[in-house]
C-alpha cells in the first residue's frame, strides 16, 4: 500500500552459526547509538535519545537517561598504498585538446614520474599503485532517473541567465591564460591512516602541464605523512612542476589549518608569489556541511572545524577573486556555503554527499587544463566531476557519490529571492495547520550523511515534494544555477545543492540561525526553520513516546504504549503542557537546554500548536497485537493513523541466558491484504557470509517500486572501530557490501569522514554488538561471532537472513510519527 513504509526484501537462508557474543567485553558506549534508541544524538528528543519513557505520566516528569556517543562517520583508509605499482587503471577520459607543446595521456593514474622533492624522481617514487580492480558489482552507471522530478545528472548547461553579474575572472583565450591553483591540503587522519593525501599528490604529479599553470600545495594537519617528503612536524608549501614535488616554503610552523588566518595567509602568499590571470582554490580534507564546516586538523583537534563564517573571513582576508573554489571534501555543496563563496568566486565545485575515499581524481582534468589554459570554467568543472565519478564507479561501486558545479553569479542573483518566497510560504503552511505536509516532505527528502544527523537535505528534492508554486520556482532557479551534476546510480534525488533543515537534531537550530546572521543570509529562511523546529519539539513534548525499547522488552510498557497525553489529549491540556514546558529548563527533550532553545521563543505559538497537535496525534494505544482473519498476529491501524507514521523499524534482541544481545534496527516487515502489520515469526536476522551481525538502517529513499536502503554494521576492521556499509535497492534486492567507514569514537570533530573504498582480501573483521543486562542497563560492547579474515571480493559477500539460534528472541517494532517521536510496540517473544 502506498502509505506504508518501505522495507527491504528478506532473503531467508539456512544454517549459520547463530548469535553468540565473544570475549570479555570491549568497554565504550553503544555502537547502535548513531541510529539506535540509545543515543543522545538526536538532540530533539525524536526517538533516538536516551532511555526515557513516560509510562503514563506527563512528559514533564519523565525520567531521562541519556547515553551520549558521537559517531562522526570515520577516518581515513587502510591498505590504500602499496601494491604492484601498476596504476594504469582507466577512468573516464576528459577531453584533452591537442597542442604541439603538451603531451597528453589517456591512462589516468600511470605515474610518469616519481614523487620527488626536486631531485631524481626514481629516488622518491613512494606510493605504489592506485586502488586497482575494484568490485565486480554492476549496479548501473550514473543515475538516469529520479523519483520525483526530471533529473539534471550528466547534462552540462552553459547558458547564462539574464541579469546575473558578469564573471569576475576574464579569460584571455587561445591558451594564453596563466593559472595559479592553490590546494589547501589538511591531511588529517585521512593521510595518517591511509595516505590519501599522498595518493592525490601522486595523481597531481602524474598530470602533464607546463609553466602556464602554477600548482602549489599547502600541507599540514596530519600527525604522520605517509611519505618521506612532506614534514609531519611543520606546515609547508610545495610546488608541483615538471613532475617534481618541490618544497618552496619550509618551516611555516605547526599551526592549525582550520583557522581562517592560516588559509588567508596562504592565499595572499600564493597570489603575491604566483600572479596569474586565473586563480583556483581547492579545499582538501573532511567536510561537515553547513553545520560542521571545513576541516579536521588532527594535530589541533581542539581547534575545531572552520565554520562557514570562518571560510567567509578567510576568503575575504585573502583578497583574491577565484575562477572556481572546489571542496575535495564531504558535504560542502550547500546553499549556505555557495552563498558565502559567491562573494569571492565565479563557480563552486563540491559534493552534497560524503565522498568516497578516493576523492577527486586529479591527473586527467589537470592534464586537460594544461593543454588549454583558456578552457571555459564549466568545462573544467565537468572534467573534474566526470573523472571523479568515473573513478568512484570503478573503484568503489555502490558507494554514494555526488559532485556538482554551481554558477555562483547566477545563484546569487536568482536564488535568494526565490528562497525567501519559499520560506515565507512554508512558514505560513506550518502556522496554517499544514505542518504534516512539510514534515512528510522533509522525512522523505534525499538526506546526506544521514547517520550523522546533520539534517542536510537536497533543496530541489525538498521543494519538489512540497510542490507549492514558490517551491517550484525555487527548484527552477536552483536547477538553472547548477550547471553540471553527476551522481552514482544509487543517489537519486540528488540535484546538486543541499540545505540545512532541522528534523533529527533541533539542538543545532540556534547555532545555524547565528550562522545565517554571520554570512548575511536572508532572515526568512531562519524564521522558517525556527517555526518548523518549534512545532516539532512541541509535538515531541506532548506526545511523550518511548525512545527506548526497554519498557517493551521488560513488559512494563503498559496498555497505552506511551504517555497519557499521546493520542487523546485535548487542545486545552496540550496548551497547559506547552506553557509549563516553555518555563522549564527543556531537559525533558533529549539534547535541548536553555542554552540552545532560543528558537522556541521565536517560533512557537502555543495556542496554534496546541490546536494542531490535538487534531494530529498518533494513537499509541492502537499498538496492540491482535489476530487477523487468517489468524496471523498483527497490528491494525486506521488509514488516518498510518498517515501519521513516517518510519517503521524492527528491533530484535537475543537472550543468551545472561542478558540481551541487541541486533539492531531493520526494515523487514510484511503487511496482509488489509494493510495490517504482520508479526515476524521466522526467528531470523541479517547475516553476512553465514555470520549474524548487528545491523542499523541509516537511510531509506524511494517507494516500493524504486528504492534504495542504506545501513551499517558496527565492527572492527583491522583492529579499528568502523562500520560496514550495506546497500539494498530495487536492482539489488539481496543487497551488497559497498565498503566501510571509520568511526570517531571520541567526538574529535563534527566533520564527516570520507568512506573507505574497499575491504581487501586479508583484512580482518570483528563484528561488534551492544549488550544489555536484564534490568535494561547497557553493559558494554562485545564481539559478535568469530573474527573473519576476508578471502573474497566485497561483491561476493553473501547477505541473507539466517536463524539466530535456540535462545529466546524478543522483537519490537518502532513507529515514528510526524513529530519525529518514537513508539515501541509490546514485545513479541519466540
TrEMBL record:
The chain crosses the membrane at residues 60-81. Residues 1-53 are annotated as: Disordered. It comes from Butyrivibrio proteoclasticus (strain ATCC 51982 / DSM 14932 / B316). Keywords: Hydrolase, Membrane, Protease, Transmembrane, Transmembrane helix. This is Cysteine protease C11 family. The lineage of its organism: Bacteria, Bacillati, Bacillota, Clostridia, Lachnospirales. GO terms for molecular function: peptidase activity. Residues 38-53 have a biased composition (Gly residues). One of its GO terms (biological process) is proteolysis. InterPro entries: Peptidase_C11 (IPR005077). It comes from the Bacteria.
